[in-house]
Design goal:
By secondary structure, this protein is mostly helical. The chain contains eight helices and no strands.
């Protein structure tokens, strides 16, 4: 009886620890993607100089059109070859964050474009500085417009953490693969792993949906 109880727990406990790593990587990558994506979109949208906009456009195209796993390998193995050694978790956060920033840069740019130019002009006309117009008029409305795709990205980045198993980050899939190699309990281990992803993603999806409803423009 004790063995039958400890048998699945021997899989659940290490996978729960790995789920903590998955959440840690997801949060770090999400924060980096939000901050960098917003900065890139702001510069690309508000600075007309092609000297600034072209490098940002190149960055976005490279990170959107090259497979994510390739970027992770370059950051983890490529930088190590050049003498810059990153831990697997740090490389995972940086890699997924840079990829996400390229995606969210376009999302924020679309959000900026959705705000009518007359609102910016009106803010400037009443004596607000460009920084105040951005902070108090453009940015709040941009968050409201872009919340659905940002929410989708938040869920996607959790699932994308499964890729960082390739660089030995001890998240859910890396731990599950090691358990399968040692026990050959493929169905049980990967079933528990799938359940953990559901336990993380479903509450997050519902929280984002409620936030969207709360921030929705009254009709």
């Amino acid at each position: 009886m004790i063995e039958s109880l400890s048998y699945p727990l021997g899989f659940v406990i290490p996978l729960l620890v790995a789920a903590g790593v998955t959440i840690k990587v997801s949060v770090g990558a999400f924060v980096l993607a939000i901050l960098l994506g917003l900065v890139l979109a702001s510069i690309r949208f508000f600075v007309p100089s092609p000297i600034v906009r072209i490098p940002i456009a190149i960055y976005v195209e490279i990170f959107r059109n090259v497979p994510s796993l390739t970027h992770l390998f370059i950051i983890f193995f490529g930088l190590a070859y050049m003498g810059v050694r990153l831990g697997s978790i740090s490389a995972a956060v940086i890699g997924l964050g840079l990829i996400g920033a390229a995606m969210l840069a376009d999302v924020f740019r679309a959000g900026f474009e959705a705000i009518h130019v007359g609102q910016r002009e009106a803010g400037l006309a009443v004596g607000m500085s460009p920084r105040m117009v951005f902070r108090h008029i453009i940015l709040p409305q941009t968050w409201r417009v872009t919340l659905p795709p940002i929410g989708n990205y938040a869920v996607q980045v959790i699932k994308d953490t499964s890729l960082v198993a390739a660089i030995a980050a001890p998240e859910i899939m890396f731990t599950a693969r090691n358990l399968v190699v040692n026990t050959f309990e493929t169905t049980l281990v990967y079933g528990i792993a799938a359940g953990l992803y559901l336990l993380i993603c479903i509450p997050l999806s519902r929280a984002i949906r409620r936030l969207e409803q709360h921030m929705a423009i009254p009709r």
